[in-house]
What we know:
Blueprint: H1 2-18, E1 24-27, E2 37-44, E3 54-55, E4 58-59, E5 65-69, E6 76-81, E7 85-86, E8 89-90, E9 93-94, E10 99-106, H2 121-131, H3 135-149, E11 155-161, E12 166-173, E13 181-187, E14 193-196, E15 220-224, E16 230-234, H4 237-243, H5 256-260, H6 265-280, H7 290-295, E17 304-305, H8 313-319, E18 350-353, E19 356-359, E20 369-377, E21 385-390, E22 399-402, H9 427-438, H10 442-471, H11 476-508, E23 513-514, E24 535-536, H12 541-547
Helix pairs in contact: 2-3, 9-11, 10-11
Amino acid sequence: MKKLLLLLLAIFNFQLSTCFACTNFLVGKAASDNGQTMITYAADSYGLYGFLRFQPAANHAKGEMRKVIDWDTDKFLCEIPEVEHTYSVIGNMNEHQVTIGETTFGGRLELMDTISGTIDYGSMMYIALERSRTAREALQCMTDLVDKYGYASEGESFSIADPNEVWLLELIGKGPGNKGAVWVATRIPDDAICAHANQARITRLPLDSKGKWKRGKGNIAKVIDANGMEWMWTKDIIDVARKNGCFSGKDEDFSFSDAYNPLDLVGAYGCDGRVWSFFRHFTDDMDRYLPYIMNRGGEHMPIYIRPDHKVSAAELRACMRDQFEGTPLSIRDMKSAGIWHSKLRYGGLTFHLDSIEYCYPRPVATQQTGWSYVSEMYREKPYGIFWFGVDDAATNVYVPFFSCAKDVPEAFRKGNGDLLTYSPTSAFWAFNTVANYAYTKYERMLPDIQFRQQQWEERFAEDVKQLEAKAFEMSEADRAAYLTKYSNLQAEAVVADWKDLFSFLMVKFLDGVEKRQDENGAFLRTPEGMSDRPNRLKPSEEYLRSIADEVAH
């Protein structure tokens, strides 16, 4: 027992260093502007190095084994038999446009299987991508894996999509030595949008007094509720909660999130706040949920909403850069934002003073992002589009890659640097160099960064339309080569431009001043060729008043 408690404490400490990370947005095909399904994913953790994963398709001999390596720690967990053929995967999208994302909600840590669990959440995603042609196949593959080999991670929410369907899966272990997991999955309506951000989102199950929910083979219940939503869950989902003291009421009162991830300050304010902020971009009815976000009171947010207009990929990229602008959670308008309104905070999301826990707002765009994406899955196209960027989304550029890709550029390749090794050819280090310099004078530097960001992404959006006309006429092999070459060249060009951007910002803001520019952006010089007199950046009156007592007068 003592050994188990020490292990759980170690897990808890690890969770503190990586939790409150990751955000997913989900869009059904009838809610999008071009009939595509879309999901997004920000992989946020101070321990993540941003690179673009690539796994080519392969045939495997009978008896060949696949190593399972824990995604968070890189530790070997087990080996499992390979399947006869695996599909190619770029990032989190495979050649059939199946795409998967996740956010960790953690939940009740005592339910983590520290004894028999051998499949971690990251391996679940990538094994499913290598083996699935549809979202339903991926969902079944993931749940079959943990049922057979045991689940080795904390509570997770997964986004699983293909060109036709978008699913939300929430899953947690059964406790040490209890192989498998309890889980619930629901298909998001085609005309709706959904989000999750480190807090379990599914509450009540569609149970009825006649026990219709017990339908389905084996331990899986399958239900279509009164609203036409499809549901699946493990039939022992309530029994496990009762056995572990997580729930004691009537079956019809059971709530997955209340039982397995009880809402607290961080869950509402630090996590569901991001869901609320995403929804507010697509409906005017979100202020009604502010009491829930701010004080865990009032009406609970719904799993999904129907947007007031069709959602575009460009809007999703903008939502990935959300920092609560114009809301009570605007992190850049608080005193803790400092003199230049930075969103950077030190010491983590929470802190304690006099036995009270305090929590900063946690925006979607955050400094600890390793990489993020916006994916588009199309029924009528032979490929999906995987918009990929590294580091903080507020200061990155999303480069379009394609599900038929055959390679990734050197700048985004695994092994080109790491968190302890600077590489001058690495996209991660190029974007971090700009972002970390910008945090020092955020309000002043961000407009220059956003200008280039917008230029690149508007050009990419136009390029994608032009590429489409040519690519459709090509053979499958020629199309893959053509689109791969385009993405790789553009990725390298963006990295080169971000290095130039850092040089520009260094010159413009050297030593706390701001160099003057003409209408074309060129730095001003005197007739003799010297630098024109720079602007000395002055803080706000509010800031000056806050420091007046410590300055001689």
